[in-house]
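Researcher: Quick test of sequence recovery. Tokens follow.
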């Protein structure tokens, strides 16, 4: 039995923050020429980073790897303040491509800390976004990864306590941790607005809606992409077989056995042409391709000020 229908689930793929970050690297290469250095992968997608590397972007994990006086771009995930200091010491022309939605959390950390609060930050240990946030005020910030972690939390004053969240978490998973925190600390304050990225929320909602029509869901995204993994988790939580792939070549035929309706989505850092390749493949094998749009997205962000200065001659 072959796949009869492929649903292209929307919204999917690039969010405004990723689009801004990728365009930042491409524009920096145009203005300054190769090479430009990027602290960490600009976004968590293997295909995107390989493409930018081919154009002259060099990805590094430590600022010490960047030659003095070079152009260095900070990834969409954000950085700890010490990284900016290190860049200044090496006389780098730093361009901050941090997603504005992540920058919002950085601002919240400083504001809540300034008001005398301790901060419980819900996020996955080891993720670069988490490292950036934790590096702002490590003296008053604790990371909470799971419901089990909540039991281990100790604070000085339960009435001066705030929680913030990583932008790429599962909405359902986050609710469980928040519920546990509120149970343990009834006076804990929430951020003024939900920290989870609109794109993360929308793509998870689209998966939930599409699951009603699909036997299996393929999510295009890299293994180190938090939001892509959460899309797979969302589908599986609904009892749907779901798999994460970087591209068409990674789809295994055995996954498709006995399935008629395939849903295809993509994490916020996966380019659309990878979806097109999958759709074209199944169409060539007789499947009907149908768009399944749950909602529209119209968010966009301007390029970093450091690039604007160069474009307009304000240097």
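Model:
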């Amino acid at each position: 039995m072959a796949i009869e229908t492929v649903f292209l689930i929307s919204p999917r793929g690039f969010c405004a923050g990723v689009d801004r970050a990728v365009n930042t690297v491409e524009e920096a290469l145009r203005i300054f020429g190769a090479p430009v250095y990027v602290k960490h992968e600009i976004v968590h997608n293997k295909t995107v980073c390989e493409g930018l590397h081919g154009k002259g972007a060099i990805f590094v994990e430590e600022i010490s790897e960047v030659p003095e006086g070079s152009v260095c771009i900070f990834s969409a995930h954000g950085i700890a303040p010490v990284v900016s200091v290190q860049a200044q010491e090496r006389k780098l022309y730093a361009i901050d491509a941090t997603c504005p939605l992540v920058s919002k959390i950085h601002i919240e950390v400083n504001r809540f800390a300034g008001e005398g609060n301790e901060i419980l930050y819900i996020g996955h240990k080891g993720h670069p976004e988490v490292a950036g946030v934790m590096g702002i005020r490590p003296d008053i910030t604790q990371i909470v990864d799971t419901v089990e972690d909540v039991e281990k939390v100790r604070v000085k004053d339960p009435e001066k306590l705030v929680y913030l969240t990583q932008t790429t978490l599962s909405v359902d998973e986050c609710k469980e941790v928040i519920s546990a925190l509120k149970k343990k600390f009834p006076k804990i304050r929430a951020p003024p607005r939900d920290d989870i990225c609109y794109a993360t929320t929308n793509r998870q909602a689209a998966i939930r809606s599409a699951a009603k029509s699909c036997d299996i869901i393929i999510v295009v995204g890299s293994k180190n992409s938090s939001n892509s993994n959460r899309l797979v988790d969302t589908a599986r939580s609904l009892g749907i077989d779901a798999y994460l792939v970087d591209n068409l070549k990674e789809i295994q035929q055995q996954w498709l056995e006995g399935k008629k309706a395939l849903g295809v989505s993509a994490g916020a850092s996966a380019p659309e042409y990878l979806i097109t390749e999958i759709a074209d493949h199944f169409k060539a094998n007789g499947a009907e391709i149908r768009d399944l749009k749950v909602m529209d997205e119209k968010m966009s962000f301007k390029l970093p000020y450091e690039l604007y200065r160069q474009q307009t001659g304000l240097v």
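The chain has a mean pLDDT of 94.
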